[in-house]
Amino acid sequence: MGVLVVLQLGQFAWLSAMQYATWNSTKSADRIMNQVEGFSSSIDALESTQADLKQSLETANANNAQLGSVEARLSEVEATTRSLGRSQADTSELRVVIAAQLEQLTEDFIRLKKATSPSPKPVVQPQKRPVPAASARVAKQPSKPIPAPPPFVLLGIETRAGEAFASVAREGAASLDEIQLLRAGEAYQNWKLIRLDNNSAAFLASGEERVVSVR
Length: 215
Prior knowledge:
Elements: H1 2-116, H2 133-140, E1 153-160, E2 163-169, E3 180-182, E4 187-188, E5 191-196, E6 200-205, E7 208-213
Antiparallel strand pairs: 1-2, 2-3, 4-5, 5-6, 6-7
């Protein structure tokens, strides 16, 4: 009986020790896992910070490059401005010299022109001669007006059924409908046909006889 009690007590002590060891191991494992998770979070934060720093560094490098380009362009502009300033100064001096030379040349030209100009000659008024009476009468007679040209063109002389006709049309006529046949005694725009010859026709216009040739 005593031995059995001792065995039971030993078994209980061993089970208690095993439970404590298991509980202690579980607690240690949880603590380790928490530490690992904390380390992972810290690593993620460090990586994010590293990425931000890298981007900031790249931006700074780009800004430095742009700043260097701007400084170079500014130097070029300053050099160009100085060059233009010198050119303007040289141009101003050249203008002054040219203006002085031009003024001197103008004075020399005026002086030379006065020295070489001949003295003006006295103007002699021609004496008017009396015009003879006959010449005066001829001069007063009005010139004969130039007769007006005929308002048509004589295209030809045609004979139909033994009767002669004058074929006339206006100047520049372009169609056969504008051609008109005149017999003796008929008129075209107040030009009355008097007679016909081989290559001409006589008309009476404004009381005068006018002969028109065939074209």
